[in-house]
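TA notes. Do not distribute before section.
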Amino acid sequence: MSLILFLSAVLMAFILLTVAVVLWLSEVLGSLLLATLVVWVLDIIIAVVIYFVSLHPSIKRISQRLDTIYEVSAMFEMAYRQVVLFVKKVMGGS
């Protein structure tokens, strides 16, 4: 519960900081629209950097683990089918 409250406080602080930066930049640039676009582009750049620095390697590692799990399950399925065929031969089935 405390983690949820902390994360919501961080989100609110980020929103308030973004609004403050947009308002300050609109005073400097003289245009609210231009200030909003500048802050929006900066937020996109920050999101892309966070993705490539921290999330992308984790996603790649999870993908490799899933590939390994798929290969192992395929091997087990092949072994199971061979055991079934062997049992059918031994039991005299078709």
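Switch to the second chain here.
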Amino acid sequence: MKKKIILLIVLFLLPLILRVSIGEYLYLQGVVPNILLITVVVVAMIVPGGWVPYAYAALSGMIEDMLYSKQIGFHILLFCGTAIAVSFARNKLMKNNILFCLLFVSAASFLYEVLNWLFFGYFRMGVTVGALFGKTVAPVMILNLLLTPAVYFIYNLLLRSMSDEKGAA
């Protein structure tokens, strides 16, 4: 149990360190990928039930709020909603699947950018819907979809190895 908690802490800190350090250099058309959103979807897919996906989502949202937002709570609600949706769909529709993960990352990325645009007043600044999709939503979704398979396979390998150790012991 201690090994699993330590692994979850490391898997929480790793994308955070990547987001803060080199995440700003991974950009396409001036936008950066949302590594924390990707990991929330992946953890909610891989870790079955329990409190872990929701705690992971809440902590990731809190970090995202503190680092990149003036309003506290937007990212927490969005990330927790994403974790709930992924967990529900995982239990009812599909099991652990990379295509399902890609689908949810693209949907979560789309909702994230559109809700940012609506709630934070970007539409008042003269950003049209066409510019929003062309300059923000599409590049973010492409970057997130390109990073998702790597994150998925790394997390899947590490978290499955921990569950296999538990079963073998």
